[in-house]
Amino acid sequence: MSGPARARVLFHAGRVVAIEMPDDRPLGELLQLDPAAHGEALGRGRVHGPVGAWLVREGLASEGDVLAALRRQLRVRVGALLRWPDARLRFAPVAAPLPTLHEPVPVIDLVLGGLRDALGSVPAAASRRLRTQRWGLSPLGEALLPKAALWPEERAMAGVLERPLGGDSVLSIGAHRPRALRALYAWHLLGLVTCRRAGTRHGVLLRKRHQLRHAASPADLLELREHGDARRGLRRLLRDVHPDRFEPSLQTTSGEVVQALMRAERKLRG
What is the pTM of this model? Predict the structure, then answer.
């Protein structure tokens, strides 16, 4: 990778195992090692193998402290890389064996942590859009956010986003702290949340209700093309018209539409 400087990101078995870049704090500084003990250990001989493993062997740090420092170092370096303008990527195979972390860091944690460090503040235009639009988890967000290491308020925000909700209401879960706004912005940048138009599901419900009143065919109800999959069409529509998606005043209508769609699916499948 090249930019204002050059860095190397090492991947092994689908995981980031190391990032090398200039002008960064070394592992020993992150661990706040005893300078005297560190100097004595260096005087006994040169470092063999990974620095973290050597520190553990010499009794200068525990394995848990080293792993925590490595995770923090990776996150900080990802954040630094995200601040590089016009970065160019070049992939190259590495012949030498690479170390494997005993507790590998999920990529989603590295990227989210790096974005938290890199963002600083959210642009005013983006902040207005985040607050005024409705948001919901994307399929990617549904897959990755439950596995990510989140702050408690971020975890609560991710929970309410399982259903579309106004951005200001989402941010209220995080007490409107800057960290909550940065989290929602980072999720948006990564495609973990998507903007949901407020009227989309209501429009689908009204369209289906109109079709029912005019005795639409099962294929039209399920919006199928010729030889389309009835079950897949039903699943797609249920995401928009299920009663759980609506306010109480519309749940009866929604239930009637769902029953009609299920009957149409059964009829088409014979």
Answer: 0.51
Task: Please answer whether residues 234 and 265 qualify as being in contact, where contact means their C-beta atoms are separated by less than 8 angstroms.
Answer: yes
Give 66-114 pLDDT, tens digit per residue: 777 777 777 777 777 777 767 777 777 766 665 555 555 677 777 787 7
Give 136's strand partners: 194
Q: What are the residue boundaries of the structural domains of the chain, listed by start?
A: 8-82, 120-195, 200-269
Going by C-alpha positions, the residue among 189, 194, 191, 208 that lies closest to residue 246 is 208
Residue carrying the six token digits 């639009």: 133
Instruction: Tell me the torsion sign for CA atoms 197, 198, 203, 208.
Output: positive
Residues 6+ apart with CB under 8 A from 144: 108, 192
Instruction: Determine the Cα–Cα distance for residues 179 and 186; give it in Å rounded to an integer.
Output: 10
Outline where the chain has alpha helix (H).
27-31, 35-43, 51-57, 63-82, 107-119, 124-132, 139-144, 152-160, 167-173, 178-189, 200-213, 218-221, 230-241, 248-269
DSSP 6: B
